[in-house]
Amino acid sequence: MIELTLNGVCIEYDFRALILTGAGAEEVAARSKWTIAAQGEIDLHLGVALFDRPFVFTPTRVITERQQTIDGDAVFEWLTEGCYRMPRSEVFGIDVRGKDAQVFARDIDMEESPIAVFDHGTWIVAAVEIDPTLSVEVRPVVQPELPNRFGKALREYRARPSIDWVKQLNRWTNRR
Length: 176
Fold this sequence. Notes:
By secondary structure, the protein is α+β, with helices and mostly antiparallel strands. It folds into 2 domains: 104 residues, no CATH class; 67 residues, no CATH class. The chain has a 5-stranded mixed barrel with strand order 1-2-9-8-3. A hairpin with a 6-residue loop joins strand 3 and strand 4.
């Protein structure tokens, strides 16, 4: 499993969430009225988006239509290259309840994948650094400092604490 640890506050709505970092993250989290899912060190791992509920899945192994077994980090490479070419391939991993499960490659939405996942069932949409000195309301981070695959899985922004957070949170979580 490909993992990453961030420090901040994870706020959650339904199956989606944001990670807030920086000065004022706790205040922004409280104002959002979303559930605080975690604070401090937040462990994330890479997962995939599914076309239907429960929408989140963490793949660990693939058995292709040709009976080839793929494990570890190579699973994401195979999904990127072979998912739609061999739709009946079986993908094994962990479901939103943390249980061993299986889906077919055709069930995976590779246009949205990979995704950052917290606690098996929460899709982390973005990491937002709260910056009171920012001159604009929200700005995407141009060169993310995240390791390889997490750069695509997790968008990064900087934002002022004084923006309309409910409106902005809905904008970020409805983009996907």
